[in-house]
């Protein structure tokens, strides 16, 4: 009888462990999902969209384009002296950015700061697809709004213990993105190198292994401010 009780307890603990591990994985995976899963950022996104839809085409806007790393940047607060427009959407891949380029192009912005690719990696998009999409984004912007300055920002590191992403793959992807920037004679800004330590995104810069805290955004801002003001 005692042996049976021990077996039942053991099986219960095993099942409970599986449930806990599955839940943790679910939370980590969904940390990169669209901002609609986060009521705070969903509210901010709706506000941003309302403001964006009211804008008139003008070669004064500086657009920040990308995924949740961009959407959480508080660019208008960090750069109060420019006409900053936040067009980051949580969960966006390079394909998603392509699908909404028309809304960006119609504004004829002065500058575009693009960072996208993290979700391509977490969603196992082929690297060749990501690079082809990057090239399509660059070509479309250069053809449709040739006077807009384009700044491609590197894909940022992650904490591989939490995100199960090899940062060496990010470095390889960034090199190919840089090659595209060189090919089309546009700016490439390396931010990755300033936020990586021991081939990881350190915990002091991140809230969950992929998204950034204010300290990390300060590093980002200090890198790009010379391009903002040039």
From TrEMBL:
Keywords: Membrane, Transmembrane, Transmembrane helix. It holds the Pfam family Lipase_GDSL_2. Residues 64-218 form the SGNH hydrolase-type esterase domain. The lineage of its organism: Bacteria, Bacillati, Bacillota, Clostridia, Eubacteriales. The keyword Membrane applies. Coiled coil: none annotated. This is GDSL-type esterase/lipase family protein. The chain crosses the membrane at residues 7-26.
